[in-house]
Specification:
By secondary structure, this protein is of the alpha/beta class. The chain has twelve helices and 13 strands. The protein binds nicotinamide-adenine-dinucleotide and the ligand C[C@@H](CO)CCC[C@@H](C)[C@H]1CC[C@H]2[C@@H]3[C@H](O)C=C4C[C@@H](O)CC[C@]4(C)[C@H]3CC[C@]12C. The site of nicotinamide-adenine-dinucleotide has 25 residues, from helix 1, helix 3 and strand 8. It is found in: Endoplasmic reticulum membrane.
Length: 380
């Protein structure tokens, strides 16, 4: 295999949901690279096979919270896309662990950039660094300059906000050798697409309830969603343009957006689940909000009581209920203006790809059933 003399990109968290789409996106659309280093705690060996005669995909097993691991991975590279993170709003992982990975991990990436002379860093942030806040203030078609009461209490959004601040403050810092570091931050809303773990959970849950989804959130509450392929594409463009126009992109934040429709979280999921015969029951929430809130509180209480015995972490808790019940949608063209971003996948294509993937979950479950698992499966 002959590998050219292009750039070396490091993708931290490159085996995750977004990370693995990003690695494939870079392989297909970024002609200027000769090596992609996929740095992750848990390696997905199938990515290795993506190497071709132009680009080598190198899997590096490491822990972002260990500076030495990060330094080694960055040595001799040109640019880092830092997506590695613990994504947990359910209390599955202790808060200290979330901080260690998301904040200390990001500090390590910055430190390693400085010591290993890596000039460019694109950070994957989250809409959660802005909101929704726990006061239930709606963020309706907002942009990067919209005023909003930002209030962080939960470990995950708190950690993402701290990490983003560090990343932005580091823009323009001197690195070893005297050159400057340039950083920018991308803030996806709720990402969906092939491989989305939460969608798998909703699909499994729907099978248990006879393909019925019981409406819990008012349909008027809009939740911003963005297709994973477009988020990956935006990262690729930001990485490319950060090197060409560092003074434009450096120190900036960009919401990730595309043409996915504004809908409630549940109605949006139904865009895919209905292709597998799922039905949403109720045009309004079946359970009054206060009951849902009590249930969420009960779940939190159970989590606290069972702590030490096992991790009780259901999807519904007071925080996830607040996020799902508060409108958060973005409407902006900052990324288009600053680095020419336009979605690579139209909504119809993103929907088609996601449906194909959701249907493939049915096939794999049917295989399981054939070897003895209970269930009732059909798909149109
Ligand atoms: N999923 C969403 O809806 C969403 C929305 C907005 C922002 N984000 C952000 O996008 C990024 C990717 O999220 P995702 O949904 O692909 O999550 P994911 O969990 O699928 O991917 C994260 C990856 O980070 C890796 N990782 C975790 N701890 C690590 C450590 N100590 N060292 C090295 N690697 C480690 C994991 O193994 C995983 O492969 C995250 O930064 C997340 O905050 C996600
Ligand atoms: C009340 C339930 C009835 O069906 C629905 C609960 C749905 C919630 C579990 C999810 C609603 C919104 C999601 C979050 C959002 O899409 C954005 C996120 C940002 C990202 O950085 C991490 C994931 C998440 C917090 C995502 C998590 C799941 C929801 C709260």
């Amino acid at each position: 295999m002959t590998v050219g003399s292009g750039q070396v990109y490091v993708v931290t968290g490159g085996c995750g949901f977004l990370g693995s789409h990003l690695v494939r996106m870079l392989l297909e659309h970024e002609k200027n690279i000769s090596e992609i280093r996929v740095f992750d705690l848990h390696l997905d060996e199938s990515l290795r096979t993506l190497s071709n005669d132009r680009v080598k995909v190198r899997l590096i097993s490491g822990d972002i919270s260990r500076l030495e691991d990060v330094r080694e991975a960055l040595r001799g590279s040109h640019l880092v896309i830092h997506t590695a993170s613990l994504v947990d709003v359910w209390g599955r992982v202790p808060a200290s662990k979330i901080t260690e990975v998301n904040v200390t991990g990001t500090m390590n990436v910055l430190q390693a950039c400085k010591e290993e002379e890596v000039q460019y860093l694109v950070y994957t942030s989250s809409m959660e660094v802005v909101g929704p806040n726990i006061h239930g203030d709606h963020f309706y078609r907002g942009n990067e300059d919209t005023e909003y009461r930002i209030y962080h209490k939960e470990p995950y959004p708190l950690s993402k906000a701290k990490a983003e601040k560090l990343v932005l403050e580091a823009n323009g810092a001197k690195i070893k050798g005297g050159k400057l570091l340039y950083t920018c931050s991308l803030r996806p809303t709720g990402i969906y697409g092939e491989g989305h773990e939460l969608m798998k959970q909703f699909h499994r849950q729907g099978l248990r309830t006879g393909r019925c989804v019981f409406r819990a959130i008012p349909p008027a509450i809009e939740h911003g969603r963005v297709y994973v392929g477009n988020v990956a594409w935006m990262h690729l463009l930001a990485a490319r343009q950060l090197q060409i126009h560092p003074s434009t992109l450096g120190g900036q934040v960009y919401f990730c957006y595309d043409s996915s429709p504004y809908k409630s979280y549940e109605d949006f999921n139904m865009e895919f689940l209905s292709a597998c015969g799922f039905k949403i029951i109720g045009s309004r929430p079946l359970v009054p909000y206060f009951l849902l809130y009590l249930l969420a509180l009960l779940n939190a209480l159970m989590q606290w009581l069972l702590h030490g015995f096992f991790t009780y972490a259901p999807i519904l808790n007071p925080y996830t209920l607040a996020v799902a019940s508060t409108t958060f949608t973005v409407q902006t063209d900052k990324a288009e203006k600053h680095f020419g971003y336009q979605p690579l996948y139209a909504w119809e294509e993103a929907k088609k790809r996601t449906i194909t993937w959701v249907k493939s979950l049915e096939v794999s479950r049917k295989d399981l059933k054939d070897v003895g698992e209970k269930g009732n499966y059909c798909c149109n």
